[in-house]
């Protein structure tokens, strides 16, 4: 319920501020949008104008080559008879539309011309005459007229028996574009490579640089300046001013001697479109403001209705809150029961996983011990006691390893483990191969290993790291049982990390997604429970590394153990 009249005034003021902000932002947005549209149209016109200028230059550049080979002109220069030469040039001018055509003899005197008033004039010092004699090709010359403006000419030497007998000069009709461009609202100028205006719809600009040309403007009166500020109420800053009017500047490159075509477009059309939309917005806000005053006038009549409605809503909300509180208490009780059930299930799952881990991890040393005992018995029967002692030593090492494995079982149920120490991965590989020696003797498997000469030190638990390597080697041996020529490659590399890769040429991995899941196995019943890779992955994670698997391109599987290298700084910190 609205009772404070000051609050109503704040609403009206906020509405007015919002309306002004919307109108201001609309002006900025539409100005940008319509300016971009106008700029695109100007760029299209520039591309069209550039094509016209370039086409005229290319069309005129061919004329000197054709006239320089005209037998009639060559004959007239050799004979000195120019009675009909001017008429021939006038006919050629009518056909090609050139600005002017001059025929000069060796002295630079005009002997024939489309403008007969120029007959007899000397052009011996003109650049187009001198350059044409020095070059065998057509020469383009840009020269400034005494009367103002520029003259664009193509000249070429006329040869007779490989000697120069005269020069043909053809003027390009580029001034016609100034007359065409002046019929539109844009100011257009063509500048050369020195940024000098050579063509323009503004006659005062010719011969000046574009910066000097834009600086030429009359000083406006105070009334004109005030009107200009009102007319240029726009979000964008004008690119330049032409005749005291803000304009948008666009440029296009003419692929000829570094020329550029520049156009200046006024903002009149942009302002007309923007102002039309702003007028509609202002009208709409005025209508909305009138409606606001109308609805506020009905405030007193609606106060009682609003009060009754709010009271009913509060009662409904109170009842809803009470129901939600009761439901929340019931959910909390159910959650406590679920947590107890989940804890009990987790304990049972942990016990199952630990028992399976014990069975899996102790099978390997027990099998090795059985093999060593059989070998020792055979050696004792053959009276080779010293060699039998080495087998007993290995059995003793296996017993110590089994004790270490039982001590490590608690690490499967929680993160971390025994205290880590610097370990050389090369020695772990050698110990694992030594542990696997009884199994390897029963199989015709080619084992190749590539180890660096320098030590590859990592911070790890030696027993657990050897356990991972043994699991990977056993998987590789199992994968190559049905391969005619089984091979297992062990590659150890070191850089920023230590990477131990175990590759086999077996059947590969069918399901990479579930490979490291507990109890997932592709072996036959009785050959494995599917915990080796899951346990190995957990051990590598505890060591701060990562265990990955992929299929090799040539067949088989590749398992990679990546561990952080133990640097000198890390050793000092440890």
From TrEMBL:
Coiled coil: 307-341
Histidine kinase domain segment(s): 357-567
Enzyme class: transferase
Membrane topology of this protein: Multi-pass membrane protein
Pfam families with a match to the protein in the record: HATPase_c, HisKA
Catalytic reaction annotation: ATP + protein L-histidine = ADP + protein N-phospho-L-histidine
Keywords, comma-separated and alphabetical: ATP-binding, Cell membrane, Coiled coil, Kinase, Membrane, Nucleotide-binding, Phosphoprotein, Transferase, Transmembrane, Transmembrane helix, Two-component regulatory system
InterPro entries: HATPase_C_sf, HATPase_dom, His_kinase_dom, HisK_dim/P_dom, HisK_dim/P_sf, Sensor-like_sf, Sig_transdc_His_kin-like_C, Sig_transdc_His_kinase_DctB
Organism: Albidovulum salinarum
SMART domains tied to this protein: HATPase_c, HisKA
Record localization: Cell membrane
Transmembrane segments: 7-24, 276-296
The enzyme's E.C. designation: 2.7.13.3
Classification via PANTHER family: C4-DICARBOXYLATE TRANSPORT SENSOR PROTEIN DCTB (PTHR43065:SF46), SENSOR HISTIDINE KINASE (PTHR43065)
SUPFAM superfamilies given in the database record: ATPase domain of HSP90 chaperone/DNA topoisomerase II/histidine kinase, Homodimeric domain of signal transducing histidine kinase, Sensory domain-like
The name this protein goes by in its record: histidine kinase
Gene Ontology MF term list: ATP binding
């Amino acid at each position: 319920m609205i009772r404070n009249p000051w609050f109503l005034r704040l609403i009206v003021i906020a509405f007015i501020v919002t309306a002004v902000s919307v109108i201001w932002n609309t002006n900025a947005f539409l100005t940008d949008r319509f300016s971009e549209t106008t700029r695109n149209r100007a760029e299209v016109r520039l591309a069209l104008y550039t094509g016209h200028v370039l086409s005229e230059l290319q069309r005129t550049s061919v004329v000197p080559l054709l006239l320089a080979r005209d037998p009639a002109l060559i004959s007239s220069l050799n004979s000195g008879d120019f009675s009909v030469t001017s008429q021939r040039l006038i006919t050629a001018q009518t056909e090609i539309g050139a600005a002017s055509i001059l025929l000069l003899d060796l002295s630079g005197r005009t002997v024939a011309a489309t403008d007969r008033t120029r007959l007899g004039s000397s052009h011996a010092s003109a650049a187009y005459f001198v350059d044409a004699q020095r070059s065998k090709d057509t020469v383009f010359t840009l020269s400034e007229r005494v009367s103002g403006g520029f003259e664009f000419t193509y000249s070429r030497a006329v040869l007779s028996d490989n000697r120069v007998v005269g020069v043909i000069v053809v003027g390009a009709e580029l001034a016609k574009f100034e007359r065409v461009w002046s019929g539109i609202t844009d100011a257009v100028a063509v500048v050369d490579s020195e940024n000098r205006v050579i063509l323009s719809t503004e006659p005062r600009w010719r011969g000046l640089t574009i910066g000097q040309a834009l600086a030429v403007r009359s000083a406006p009166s105070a009334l004109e300046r005030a009107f200009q500020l009102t007319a240029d109420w726009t979000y964008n800053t004008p690119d330049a001013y032409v005749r005291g009017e803000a304009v948008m500047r666009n440029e296009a490159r003419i692929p000829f001697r570094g020329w550029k075509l520049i156009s200046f477009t006024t903002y009149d059309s942009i302002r007309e479109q923007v102002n039309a939309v702003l007028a509609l917005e202002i009208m709409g806000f005025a209508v909305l403001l009138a409606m606001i005053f109308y609805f506020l006038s009905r405030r007193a009549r609606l106060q009682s209705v609003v009060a009754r409605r709010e009271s009913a809503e509060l009662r409904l909300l109170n009842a809803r809150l009470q129901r939600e509180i009761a439901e929340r208490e019931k959910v909390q009780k159910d959650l406590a029961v679920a947590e107890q059930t989940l804890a009990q299930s987790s304990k049972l799952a942990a016990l199952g996983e630990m028992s399976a881990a014990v069975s899996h991890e102790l099978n390997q040393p027990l099998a090795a011990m059985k093999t060593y005992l059989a070998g020792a018995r055979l050696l004792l029967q053959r009276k080779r006691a010293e060699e039998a002692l080495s087998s007993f030593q290995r059995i003793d090492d296996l017993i110590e390893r089994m004790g270490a494995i039982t001590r490590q079982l608690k690490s499967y149920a929680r993160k971390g483990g025994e205290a880590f120490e610097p370990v050389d991965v090369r020695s772990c590989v050698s110990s694992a191969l030594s542990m696997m020696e009884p199994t390897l003797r029963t199989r015709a498997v080619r084992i190749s290993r590539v180890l660096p000469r320098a030590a590859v030190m990592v911070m790890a638990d030696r027993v657990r790291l050897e356990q991972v390597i043994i699991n990977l080697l056993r998987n590789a041996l199992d994968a190559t049982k049905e391969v005619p020529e089984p091979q297992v490659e062990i590659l150890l590399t070191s850089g920023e990390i230590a990477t131990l890769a175990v590759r086999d040429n077996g059947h590969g991995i069918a399901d990479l997604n579930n490979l490291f899941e507990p109890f997932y196995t592709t072996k036959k019943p009785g050959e494995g429970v599917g915990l080796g890779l899951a346990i190995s992955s957990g051990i590598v994670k505890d060591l701060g590394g990562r265990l990955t698997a992929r299929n090799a391109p040539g067949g088989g599987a590749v398992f990679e153990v990546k561990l952080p290298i133990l640097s000198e700084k890390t050793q000092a910190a440890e």
